Every structure is written in structure tokens, then in C-alpha cells.
Amino acid sequence: MSSTLKPQLTSDMKSSMKSGDKHRLGVVRLILAAIKQIEVDERIELDNTRILAVLDKMAKQRRESISHYSDAGREDLVAVEQAEIEIIQEYLPAALSDAEINDIVEKSITDSGAASIQDMGKVMGLLKPQLQGRADMGKVSQLIKSRLSA
Description:
By secondary structure, this protein is an all-alpha fold. The chain has two domains: 5-89, Uncharacterised protein YqeY/AIM41, N-terminal domain (Hypothetical Protein Yqey, Chain: A, domain1, Orthogonal Bundle), CATH 1.10.1510; 98-149, Orthogonal Bundle (Arc Repressor Mutant, subunit A). It is 77% helix and 0% strand. Helix 3 runs antiparallel to helix 4 (75-89) and helix 5 (98-112) packs across helix 7. The longest helix is centred in the middle third of the chain and has 24 residues, at 48-71.
């Protein structure tokens, strides 16, 4: 399966250059650089699933930065990180609602036959491809733990 996100990112980088949108250009270049780094390190070409994982990781890093900057009272830096998240999220699939996530988690627990917290890996294995980039995997992990330990 070839990637459709990478050509879109390259195209968006070119249009950002032409329009003079320096902020968007910088974020798109960061995304492409992160993808390229993995491709060079692992000597592979990333498919859409792996690119979504990269985008998800970048968004998570920015959410963590926002939390730290807010605690430090640096609203100027919070605004920069928030603007970057908005651009990154344009390339991620639409986020799922809490109800949709709950339904998918319940179905995966049932499908995997998970009975205890030791089975969490099985459930995460089923969920990760479905939820990557569409849900905060940390929250999903906590949801699974609470379901399996109940």
C-alpha cells in the first residue's frame, strides 16, 4: 500500500511556499522531516498507517508541551504549540467521540476474550490500528485498565 498522505504533505508544502504562509510551511516541513528521518533510519517507505502514527506522536508531544507551558505561565508558547496542533490535526482522521471509543473498546475486549489486566496487550493490539490518530491512546489505555480490572 503506498502512501497518499506524503504526496499531500509535499503538495501542501509547495502551496505554503507560494502563498508565503511561513508558519504552515514550517509545520509541514517538520512533519516531512520526521517522516524522512524514520524512512532513512529504517530504510523503508512509510505507509499511511505509520505516517498517522508519526502525526499522532507529534500532536501528543505538543499537547504535553502546552501543559508544561501553561503551568509555567508562558501563554505565548502555548499559542504557538496550539497553532501547530491545529495544522497537524488537519492530516489526522476525525477524532472519535467518547461513546464511539467506548463501543470499540468493548467490542475489542469481547473479540479478544480478554478477562484480566494480563490480557491488555491483546486488546491494545486490536485497538491500535483502529484508533491511531483518532483517539488519545493514553486515555484508551486507562479505559481498558478500568474495564479489565473491574
